[in-house]
Amino acid sequence: MKYVCSRCGKEEDAATRKPRCECGGLWNLEFERPKFSLDLVDRDEWSIFRYRAFMPPLGDAWRAVSLGEGLTPVVRLDDDLSLKMDYFMPTLSFKDRGAAVLVSHCRAVGVESVAQDSSGNAGNSVAAYCARAGIACEIFVPEGTSPKKIDMIRAHGAVANVIPGSRDHCADVCRAAVRERGLYYANHVYNPFFYEGTKTYLYEIYEQLGRVPRNIFVPVGNGTLYLGIVKALEEFLAAGLIAGMPNVVVMQSENCAPLLEAWRSGEERPARIVPRPTLAEGIAIGRPMRGEAILASVRKYDFKIVAVPEDAILACRRELAAKGIYCEHTTAANYAGYRRYCELYGRTPDSVIPMCGAGLKSDH
Q1: In this structure, are residues 249 and 217 in contact, taking their beta carbons and an 8 Å threshold?
Q2: Confidence category of residue 361, pLDDT binned at 50, 70, 90
Q3: How far apart are CA 18 and CA 1, in angstroms?
């Protein structure tokens, strides 16, 4: 198992404490794994680690870290759309998928203290799993983060630093602290172990439905869920489980859409933008660090990107709540993005969107 630099190709042992390559490139993770098959799923394990045959080697570290994350239901909303209920998680967010694997790796290699920056959900997940694993944790969040998310981070015993300014500035402050204080950067964007957890989102859908839906909608800020979904789809292709890629639709807030702007203009790197305020705080990322990789895969597989109308978010949240689905604002933006896509391209049967975060987390 090794890291490989996404920029220069340098290899490094995956136990390294270096958050990125000396050249500035981010790490990708390489390890031997079998072709995906449901025959290799551990049906006696009721967490994402039922899929550990396809995960990086973690030894038994995961047993002391898992909180029973995963195995969330797929709920049919109407004839065309299903919801993957990923806020049915220990910390009420899909980020538990990635945090469980990342913190298991930290425990396996003896990490004692970590830092991470987040808009709230990822920080809460890392804080919870570090508490479970006995690892000290410090989380940096931008001002404007839901107070309830901050309360949850602190309840897990982590230090929560609220940083004035944008989400991107918050990340800069955290990375400076990592460099100056020698902390392990348990970041959901930099660290590729996180994506080895988020790919289980699609593993579960395949196991639950017995197939891959024709249309997969995914919100993208930094792209942690998107990159995991692409990993899983590529594994399915390699195993011969699917003949080609489904229609994957990337959704970005119209007020913060660096990938959409680059896609429209044919650029290979995210567009330089000044984010405007948005209710979809979870995807308000002006400088996605893996943006080039996201855009490359969007073009490779002919995926689409759509803007979420800001003025539709609250109405979609109310509509979902009236049907028993109480989600946070960023999650309601997923439904708004799906509706917008249907306006642009027509009826879209056999679609799935993630219910990423629970409603109480953004009541502020």
Answers
A1: yes
A2: confident
A3: 15
What is the percent of the chain with per-residue pLDDT over 70, rounded to a whole number?
100
CB 271 within 8 A of CB 262: yes
> In terms of domains, do 85 and 19 share one?
no
Burial (0-12, 13-18, 19+ Cβ within 10 Å), 9? exposed
Q: What is the pTM of this model?
A: 0.95
Tokens of 181: 């204080």
Q: What is the mean pLDDT of residues 3-14?
A: 97
Do residues 250 and 300 both lie within one domain?
A: yes
Domain membership of residue 143 (yes or no) is no
Instruction: Report the Cα–Cα distance between both ends of the chain, in Å, rounded.
Output: 43
**Are residue 358 and residue 299 in the same domain, yes or no?**
yes
What 3-state class would DSSP assign to 48?
Answer: helix
Question: Domain residues for 278?
Answer: 74-90+195-362
Indicate if the pLDDT at residue 142 is higher than 70. Answer: yes
Rg, C-alpha atoms of the chain: 19
> β-strand 27-30 against 2-5: which pairing, if any?
antiparallel
CATH of the domain at 220: 3.40.50.1100
Please give the tally of structural domains in the chain. 2
3-class DSSP assignment, residue 23: coil
Q: Which residues pair with 74 in a beta bridge?
A: 84
Task: Inform me whether the pLDDT recorded for 364 exceeds 60.
Answer: no
| Alpha-helix runs per DSSP H in 240-326 | 258-265, 291-300, 313-321
45 within domain boundaries: no
Asked if the structure places residue 54 within a domain, the reply is: no
- The torsion of the CA quartet 185, 189, 190, 196, rounded to 10 degrees, works out to 100
Token pair listed for 305 = 């990107």
What gap in Å lies between CA 308 and CA 65, rounded to an integer?
Answer: 36
Is there a domain that residue 142 lies in?
no
Q: What are 217's strand-pairing partners?
A: 249
